[in-house]
Specification:
By secondary structure, this protein is mostly helical. It has 46 helices and two strands. It has a two-stranded antiparallel sheet. Helix 10 packs across helix 15, helix 33 packs across helix 34 and helix 40 crosses helix 41. The longest helix has 43 residues. The chain starts with 23 loop residues before the first helix and ends with a helix.
């Protein structure tokens, strides 16, 4: 039976450090063997105590790809997480923009990394501390370059494949037949195979090691850009590469665009790089060069812009910045910032402007000829020659006509003829003519006895109403002769009938609604709702009636609830009343009559003088009748709850001086003793609430009897002292554990943070902060950490300030304008990152202000 109890300060007796390029599973096997563990499950329980899986299942989940957490392995093995991460494929995945999740990396390295152990027996035999190299697991490497032999992928004795993590940890012995693997002789590599092994080994060894720049999120995109650039240099299309590599064209696009969602795997990068004749190391290093990346980006944009231009030419559309930006999905500013793209588009822009000018001149010539013909036609008919008349004849909008005639004598002539000599527009000629026509139409309708309305006048003339009544004089003329609307008269009559019906229904005590009003006046509900004023009168009346009826119902319910509470001896308040009537206390407080009822009942119940008077009368009554005197009997007699009786000291003293209910007090004492014993037997906390629950008594009943109060006070004082001692003992233990945890974190060069402390101690920081001394330790550790960070930031700021000064001097020496962007590019940090340091910000802020002021001055000179 394996003991699964582990403490956060446990360390293995032997803790060898990982060798260079050693695999993670191989290191775990070597660690378990060095500590003489019977099974690998023992190591898993020790290194990953918080895992929710069984040891056998947890072993299956461990691999060389990566891991979400190393558990307590850095502590138990006294090894840093950086060294442990170097034993996985974490850095290789980072270089190609993959997430560090084991499942994600597992899909990426599918078909590239062996799922079983590959090894060189000669390397195992020569090494004094044999280990398994992570490079050996890559299937693209045929063998060992040190001994020029093939890797073995199975045991040469029993012919079984070796698992990555054997159940019984052993490096040089087969986990199945227990034979020595170092005695085997592998076959040798051919000359071609050896060259391939050397190239592949150097590439993989470089990629699995940590390097600067691999944390950039768009790293896969930069590598893809390099691949696309090399392909274009060779003059090949993505389709040709896909056919040669025998993979999908969509996957080629994913490789070149750095898209992680197109099924791109590591073996595709290997095949593509081999096809282009470049090593993976050279490909990665080329992606780090900003100048090279900028050149490739610009070349890519030129290709995309050329494709967009061919598309616009095929559609016979103008080639403009706007049209190109919509097709390629970039802003005009971005395209203008690329010199080669801007030169290409400017050339097409000049050509486009020249063609546009030629087309405009040709169209202008045609419009002028048509306008001359229209003028001759209007002149022959004797009609006024206006721009509107010409545009109607040509079939062209008047604004477009003015655009084509601008700068020509014909425009000045037509503008002059649109006005009289006194400056009034000729449009009034049409208005005067229509006024005379409307007057004649009105006289005709009067003689025929027909109604004079806007509609009949327009129909008689043969014009639409909008066209006729756009003139103010015609609107006023027709308004003088039209009669008031019949709809308005009908609405007024209905309003009077509805108001009379409402008065009649109110006097009869009948409900007021659309149904009752419609039945009384003989008009359907649909007609009543059709008229706005009728609908408004009815809705307001119905709302007022329902509001008054609702208030009366609520008042009746509240009155009944108050009487019930007083009869049961309960406290009268908004909360208790709302529970009984089922209406929220906020709604009750908004009703004036309800608020008056509740306030009167509360005042009647809570006045100390009145309570004393009622208690005195109750005491006299109970004494005469010979009944026992206690809080319960006094409450029943006065119809007051015990909460009110115990609220005032004078009332409590008066009742306790006259109490003779000894039997009841003894019964309560017995119940309290029994409840305390029951709670102790169940292991529950002994509180006033739990005692009341088990004894089936209220807190007011317990506080009503002096002997019961005295018993509870003694018990709770003793209980509080005991809890204080337990708290002190637990606090001492936690302080000791926190101090040990802080020492361990400092020895491992880990930051002392709440998260690290809670993981190491197995307790949350919220629980630790409940203890003052532990909280003080945590706060001090955090304060020290913040001071260290502030010191590091200050040192870093001083270093960057020196670099910024050097960059400024270099820019001045080279004759380059000193700007904030130029300084950030020289230093190698973004402008936002530089401004986080006060010393650096103090240097570069005046530069930015000076440049802005200079740009304003230049803009003013250009403008004015």
């Amino acid at each position: 039976m394996i003991d699964t109890t582990r403490y956060f300060f446990d360390i293995l007796s032997v803790h060898p450090q990982p060798e260079q390029m050693e695999s993670f599973t191989g290191y775990l096997t070597r660690l378990g063997e060095a500590n003489r563990m019977g099974t690998i499950g023992e190591l898993v329980i020790t290194a990953f105590p918080n895992t929710s899986y069984q040891p056998s299942d947890a072993v299956k989940m461990l691999n060389d790809y990566s891991t979400l957490s190393f558990g307590t392995l850095p502590i138990t093995a006294a090894c840093s997480e950086i060294a442990l991460r170097a034993t996985t494929l974490f850095h290789l995945g980072k270089k190609f923009g993959r997430l560090s999740h084991p499942q994600t990396l597992g899909g990426f390295f599918q078909g590239s990394v062996a799922s079983h152990r590959r090894y060189c027996p000669l390397c195992l035999a020569e090494c004094s501390r044999p280990y398994y190299s992570l490079v050996w697991q890559f299937l693209c490497i045929p063998g060992c370059i040190r001994h020029g032999c093939h890797f073995l992928e199975e045991c040469g004795h029993c012919r079984h494949k070796l698992p990555l993590l054997p159940s019984h940890p052993s490096i040089v012995f087969c986990p199945i037949c227990r034979e020595d693997l170092r005695t085997l002789m592998p076959p040798l590599l051919t000359g071609e195979e050896n060259q391939e092994a050397v190239a592949r080994t150097h590439d993989i060894a470089f990629l699995i090691a940590p390097h600067d720049g691999e944390d950039i999120q768009e790293r896969a995109k930069f590598i893809g850009m390099q691949l696309a650039h090399l392909r274009r240099i060779r003059g090949q299309s993505p389709s040709e590469v896909a056919v040669h590599l025998q993979i999908n064209k969509r996957r080629i696009g994913g490789l070149e665009q750095g898209d992680m969602h197109r099924g791109v795997i590591f073996s595709n990068y290997i095949a593509y790089a081999d096809y282009l004749g470049i090593s993976l190391r050279a490909l990665y290093e080329a992606s780090l060069s900003e100048q090279n990346r900028y050149h490739i980006l610009e070349e890519e944009w030129v290709e995309r812009v050329k494709t967009a231009i061919h598309k616009l030419e095929s559609l016979d559309k103008p080639i403009t910045y706007r049209a190109i930006s919509e097709i390629v999905g970039a802003t005009r500013e971005h395209l203008g910032n690329l010199p080669r793209v801007k030169a290409l588009l400017d050339a097409y822009q000049v050509e486009h402007q020249h063609g546009k000018l030629q087309r405009f001149q040709q169209r202008q010539k045609e419009i002028l000829e048509q306008a001359q013909a229209a003028i001759h036609h209007l002149d022959s008919l004797g009609e006024p020659i206006t721009q509107q008349a010409i545009s109607d004849f040509i079939g062209l909008a008047r604004l477009n006509l003015r655009e084509y005639l601008r700068g020509t004598p014909l425009l000045q002539k037509t503008v002059k003829e649109d006005y009289y000599d006194d400056g009034t527009r000729r449009v009034h000629w049409r208005e005067n003519e229509l006024v005379e026509l409307v007057q004649a139409t009105i006289q005709e309708l009067q003689s025929l006895g027909e109604p004079i309305t806007r509609k009949t006048v327009a129909q008689k003339i043969g014009m639409s109403q909008p066209g006729l009544y756009r003139y103010a004089s015609i609107r006023e003329l027709v308004k003088e002769y039209t009669k008031p609307s019949q709809r308005g008269q009908r609405e007024v009559e209905l309003v009077e009938q509805v108001q009379t019906a409402i008065k009649s229904l109110t006097s009869q005590g009948k409900p007021i609604g659309y149904q009752s009003v419609s039945q009384m006046i003989g008009v359907s509900k649909r007609v009543l709702r059709h008229y706005l004023r009728v609908r408004t009168v009815l809705d307001e009346t119905i709302e007022q009636a329902s509001r008054g009826q609702y208030e009366a119902e609520v008042v009746a319910l509240v009155q009944a609830a108050i009487e019930r509470l007083e009869a049961e001896g309960e406290v009268v308040g908004y909360q208790s009343v709302s529970k009984l009537v089922g209406i929220s206390q906020w709604v009750l407080q908004r009703q004036l009559r309800v608020r008056a009822l509740v306030e009167d009942a509360k005042e009647k119940q809570q006045s100390e003088v009145e309570v004393i008077a009622r208690v005195r009368i109750a005491l006299e009554t109970l004494t005469v009748s010979g009944e026992p005197i206690g809080y319960r009997t006094v409450g029943k007699t006065t119809k007051l709850p015990q909460k009110v009786l115990t609220r005032y000291c004078s009332v409590r003293e008066l009742i306790e001086q006259n109490t003779n209910d000894q039997q009841r007090e003894v019964e309560v004492l017995v119940k309290v003793h029994a409840a305390i014993q029951a709670l102790e037997g169940l292991g529950e906390s002994i509180t006033l609430r739990n005692i009341c629950k088990h004894a089936h008594l209220t807190t007011y009943t317990l506080k009503s009897y002096p002997r019961v109060r005295e018993l509870l006070e003694q018990f709770f004082h003793a209980h509080c002292d005991e809890r204080a001692r337990e708290f002190q003992h637990k606090e001492d233990e936690l302080v000791r554990r926190v101090q040990i945890a802080i020492q361990m974190l400092n020895s491992l060069n880990k930051p002392v943070t709440s998260r690290n402390l809670s993981e190491m101690m197995g307790a949350s920081c919220e629980n630790l902060k409940r203890y003052p001394r532990a909280k003080a330790l945590l706060e001090k550790a955090m304060e020290d950490r913040l001071q260290q960070r502030a010191q590091k930031k200050q040192q870093r700021g001083e270093e960057l300030a020196g670099q910024v000064q050097t960059a400024i001097q270099e820019l001045v020496a080279l004759g380059i304008p000193v700007t904030q962007v130029a300084i950030s590019q020289k230093v190698g940090l973004s402008l936002c990152a530089l401004k986080q340091y006060p010393l650096v910000k103090k240097i570069i802020a005046p530069i930015g202000e000076h440049n802005r002021h200079h740009r304003k001055e230049v803009f003013k000179q250009v403008t004015y």
